[in-house]
Design goal:
By secondary structure, the chain is of the alpha/beta class. The protein has a six-stranded parallel sheet, sandwiched between helices. Strands 8-7-9-10-14-13 form a six-stranded parallel sheet, with helices on both faces. The protein has a two-stranded antiparallel sheet with strand order 11-12. Helix 1 runs parallel beside helix 6 and helix 11 crosses helix 12. It binds thiamine diphosphate.
């Protein structure tokens, strides 16, 4: 295993002192090191991975120094366009060091949403023409790889990728997510109240990470089955548009989107479409804990944005911020009086159960059950 402190020192020795990206559970220790040791303007967590490529490009234009961009391999899709039409040597030729967490590595057990991405990661880099190495877990070898990467980046003035396997980094500090108790509700309690107070005919579309896992367990607890829920286990940031697609087709059915703040911010433009198309049966709920809790608790800008003002400006007919249990209960009790689309910014604590399970159904089973329920 690599010592993340030594890894970051080697990066520094090779001239890398600016970082941006979207966190990943596989890079949790690395992200934690950056959070603890760098000033906020040297480690910028971006809404999505494409933004990080653009930010690193701006940084290079201003300083002539390449930056590091980190991401989970599922983020590669979000940066294909800026990698091919901005950083590529045939366009502006911008040197960037990519650190890519390899979820779904063939031969290793992982969740269904990572399997395909794990298989094609190297192929994607090949197609993009980005040279890469798989980071060794031997310190001396890894140092050599980083030195070589830095040399190639400087010479070619273009991106180079270091692909990182699971369990490459040893523990840094206690590496547990900061648990904040700023707000009264936990995310799980908020979901529980929403599930139990919204009419049983409503369908749910939940976002990737622990939101979907908690929703799944809550349905078990109430013996409701899982056919009302489309669990968007991958496709971070897209659940509100899936919900929109359903709401526009099934106007007599209430459609609830359970979103995360990180996911909402990742593709916030979708809010404009919801507001403009204005389906009255859509309820869009952001469970806002101000961080990416599912992958280690790295901060989002969720507490620094007035989501309700954005939703109103986009054209949602109702938008409200909920900070307490009482406020949530009273809003849900009067749900029928609120004209949709409804937007709720529900503030929740950073907390989740250690024994939280994972969906036992496959994504295809989930899709089939859901379509049958929606079709009724
Ligand atoms: C495109 C993409 N980038 C990164 C990830 C890794 N990832 C999975 S869940 C998650 C955090 C989600 O944060 P948020 O939506 O705020 O929900 P929370 O975990 O706090 O409930 C991230 C970054 C991903 N799945 N897809």
């Amino acid at each position: 295993m690599l010592d993340v402190v030594l890894f970051c020192e080697t990066l520094k020795k090779n001239g890398f002192d600016s970082f941006s990206g979207v966190p990943d559970s596989l890079l949790k220790e690395f992200c934690l090191y950056l959070k603890v040791n760098l000033p906020p303007d040297r480690n910028i967590i971006t809404p999505n991975e494409g933004n990080a490529i653009a930010l690193a490009s701006g940084c290079y234009l201003a300083t002539g120094k390449p930056s590091v961009v980190y991401m989970q391999n599922s983020g590669l899709g979000n940066c294909v366009n800026p990698l091919t039409s901005l950083a590529d040597p045939k366009v502006y030729s911008i040197p960037i060091l990519l650190l890519i967490g390899w979820r779904g590595e063939p031969g290793k057990k992982d969740e269904p949403q990572h399997v395909k991405q794990g298989e094609i990661t190297m192929g994607q880099l090949d197609v993009l023409g980005i040279p890469y190495c798989v980071l060794s877990d031997d310190q001396a070898e890894a140092d050599g790889q980083l030195e070589k990467a830095a040399g190639m980046i400087h010479e070619s003035k273009s991106p180079y990728a270091v692909v990182i396997r699971s369990d490459t980094f040893g523990k840094y500090l206690l590496s547990k997510a900061d648990t904040s108790v700023e707000y009264e509700l936990t995310r799980e309690e908020a979901i529980d109240l929403i599930v139990s107070m919204i009419d049983e005919s409503a369908v749910f579309v939940s976002s990737t990470g622990k939101i979907s896992r908690e929703l799944y367990e809550i349905r078990d607890k109430y013996g409701m089955g899982h056919s009302r829920d489309f669990l968007t286990v991958g496709s971070m940031g897209h659940s509100s548009q899936i919900a929109l697609g359903i709401a526009l087709q099934k106007k007599n059915r209430r459609v609830v989107c359970l979103d995360g703040d990180g996911a909402f911010i990742m593709h916030m433009g979708g809010a404009g479409l919801i507001g403009n198309l204005s389906p009255e049966n859509l309820i869009h709920i952001v469970l806002n804990n101000g961080c990416h809790e599912s992958v280690g608790g790295q901060p989002t800008i969720g507490f620094g944005i007035d989501f309700t003002a954005i939703a109103s400006a986009c054209g949602y007919n109702t938008s409200a911020r909920i900070e307490t249990r009482k406020e949530l209960i009273s809003f849900l009790k009067e749900m029928k009086e609120h004209k949709g689309p409804v937007f709720l910014d529900v503030r929740v604590n950073v907390s989740s159960r250690d024994n939280l399970g994972r969906p036992r159904t496959t994504p295809i089973e989930n899709k089939n059950d859901f379509m049958e329920f929606v079709g009724k």
